[in-house]
Amino acid sequence: MRTDSPQTIFRKDYTPPSYLVETVELGFDLDPARTIVANRVTMRHNPDSKNRDIVLHGEDIELVAIRMNGTELNPGQYILGATTLTIKGAPLNVVLEIETLCAPQDNTTLSGLYVSNGSFYTQCEAEGFRRITYFPDRPDVMAVYTVMLRADKEKYPVLLSNGNLVEEGTLPDGRHYAKWEDPFKKPSYLFALVAARLVCQEERYTLKSGREVLLQVWVEDGNLDKTDYAMQSLKNSIRWDEERWGLELDLDRFMIVAVGDFNMGAMENKGLNIFNTKFVLANPATATDVDYAGIEAVVGHEYFHNWTGNRVTCRDWFQLSLKEGLTVFRDQEFSADMIGTDSGRAVTRIDQVRTLRQAQYPEDAGPMAHPVRPDSFVEINNFYTVTVYEKGAEVVRMYLTLLGRDAFRKGMDLYFARHDGQAVTCDDFRQAMADASGRDLSQFERWYSQAGTPVVTATSTYDAENQVYELTLAQQCPPTPGQPTKLPFHIPVAFGLLGAQGSDLPLNADGDTTLILELMGEREVFRFEGIAEQPVPSLLRGFSAPVILEYPYTDEELVHLFRHDSDPVNRWEAGQRLAMSRLLDLTAAVQQGAGLELDYGFIAAQRALLLDDTLDAAFREQALILPSESVVADRMEVVDPRAIHTARQFMRKTIATVLRSELLNAYAANDTPGEYSPDAVSAGKRGLKNLALAYLCAAPDEHVLTLAFRQFEGATNMTDRASALVALIHTGANVDAQLEAFYQQFDGEALVIDKWFAMQAGAPNTDVARVRELMQHPSFTLKTPNRARSLLFSFCNGNPAQFHAPDGSGYEFWAEHVIKLNALNPQVAARLARSMDRWRRYDPALQVHMRTALERVAAAPKLSNDVLEVVSKALSN
Ligand code: B3K
Ligand code: ZN
């Protein structure tokens, strides 16, 4: 947290560092109240810079002493600012020795060195290293680190840092030490240490090359029964990176450490990944299928960063998507390859599309909209966004779509060959792709520089006499903050045509049935000859670009695609379009107080899909999930959260009533008796079974309630138990006894108690008063981000009908807690602050309350840059 006035930092102002660092030797005397950090850096002037001033960053630390080339500097020889230490006109070669103090136990920001449950952990990305010692804390300064840790042996028996353990031993006064050396150059944001009371699951693993490595998963005592899946996922990640990309683990030792207090998912520190417990700990009794999938994805993600992020890193933080977009793309491909089937792959793709629509499109259309490579920021931590991550991954995926698998792989190989050991830019990545494929990717650059979601409008004509089909594609992109007009994007549109029988029509003489059309202008016409019958177009197959695609489909055409499209993503998409038009009509009817009706044609299409046994359960589940309330909201001119909720509930209830027997059959047919396995087929069955139960509970009768209660009582895994409880909560039935039993059964399992809070926060009858009551529960604390998220975020983001109560009480609650969290943990506070991003889209009466709440936060004393940036962007015009 900074208290000096916020400064906007611009990408165009980048200058190379004035000094480069060769080696860093760090000594830590760890004490929760008073940790002494001794830092010895060898620096030399950077020939690429004319500047001879050394600028070190530092924040919330106390300078004890500083020596340059052996001589103590007195305060007249350096300038100590609020967040920097500058030495003017330094010699060409410099050895700096700096001693500082910090108080990890008081560090509630969870950035820098902090204490969680009595042990020490660090988080340095993006700018946490400066909270540990004075240093040029920027990613383009890469150095080799040696770390000496000293701490009480009894309290902190395990001492870990990056790289290899080279020495350890005991010290007087019950203390001990460990010395670690990381052989690879790295930026400071990848530094990590852990001093803790932990136990580990470990394994020796043989790489393809025959080299043996040590893998460890470190957790608190009592959690060793929950580390198998993380270890298995780590081994799968190592093997997959070798097989798919030819990338080998470069260290002899790779560690994962789980910690209960953590701001985000996990962190890719070199050789010492630190994880939120949520993405490590799992056994069938405590974790759901979704949790297991999350562990696989995040373990993969952090491991893959070792090449995409660590070996090749970012020149500056504007380039964040260089590592994050690419690494998300890699973890998505990993998860899809682990399932291995085409339909399983499609289900992972549908999930990605859902995330984009749910979170990224709204961001791209709101006050925080920014390009994949932002041009400016106040607080970089605010830019770890769905745009940089998920849209960034879409940008990488578009190279693959445009170049094809072989050329894309050549591009990756060239990128590593050119830039290993360097800090580079998004342009360097694009250049490697262009050079390896021989393609001109200059227009593609706009995906990095222009914010906003492009809208592609398609129209078509069919000339039966000449058998010619013409498709016209036009694009435009709405204005975003600071970018009033946009130039055309280079958009790959995967395209096919369906005949009346539902099969794909050949599009050319080669008989291709899917083509990648490249839309580069504002408007282009694509002509296909020899099309023997009036076709239905299947556009943007596989979701080939992160755009909004509009085509004047009739209901009959959508039903045809929903039944027959050979592309499963577009099959799903057709169902979503059918559902969306009904949700919007029903919402309007609710607003007008008109009678509500759902046409049988839609239900019949849903029914046919539910009964189609040739489809995987996982796919059927996806196809039957209605667009979420917030995705519907995004499609409305003026958002009415309560009307949307009523409309969607009506639709669910009607489907449940009409398809009762089919849903009951699906419920029975997809049971997964026997030992729990998180594999995709079993998880898909559970998904469909529990979706059927949730639908049935939208129109509950005795029988359905009995099924749900019985499933809750008798469940042998958390997926079934939690699904039953959530379904019951949503019926409004009295489940006090079940909630109490659940709590008692899992008291002490923090991650399960998080679920307990979250399921109540999202319940339709949970209003602000009830949330305040839950906050009084002895297990509630704002200090642990997972717990704060489980209650506050689940309510503010996941319960729109209650959060947007007409009296504004939800917004008051929001403001109060953004301010409270701001004092504890600005990063988490700023995330919560984003719940109000889209406030101008609501009806004027709600807007009045929202503005008041935003202004209250903006005027709060000691506001962090993090929160200030979010609320001032929301309030600005
Ligand atoms: N690189 C980290 C994110 C750090 C966030 C800092 N506020 C995790 C990841 O993307 O793998
Ligand atoms: Zn990442």
Number of beta-strand segments: 31
Unreliable spans are none
Number of helices: 27
Biggest sheet, open or closed, and with what strands and sense? 8 strands, mixed
The CATH homologous superfamily of the domain at 603-875 is called: Peptidase M1, alanyl aminopeptidase, C-terminal domain
CATH architecture of the domain at 603-875: Alpha Horseshoe
Rg calc? 28 Å
Give the spatial strand order of the biggest sheet.
6-5-9-3-2-12-15-14
By CATH, the topology of the domain at 603-875 is Zincin-like fold
The helix/strand class is: alpha+beta
Global mean pLDDT: 98
Bound molecules: (3S)-3,7-diaminoheptanoic acid, zinc ion
Please report which band the strand proportion falls in: under 5%, 5-15%, 15-25%, 25-35%, 35-45% or over 45%. Answer: 15-25%
Shape category? globular
Percentage of residues in helical conformation: 40-55%
Our measurement of the CA-to-CA distance between the termini, rounded to an integer number of angstroms, reads 26 Å
Family: Belongs to the peptidase M1 family.
Cofactor: Zn(2+)
Enzyme class: hydrolase
Domain Peptidase M1 alanyl aminopeptidase Ig-like fold: 452-551
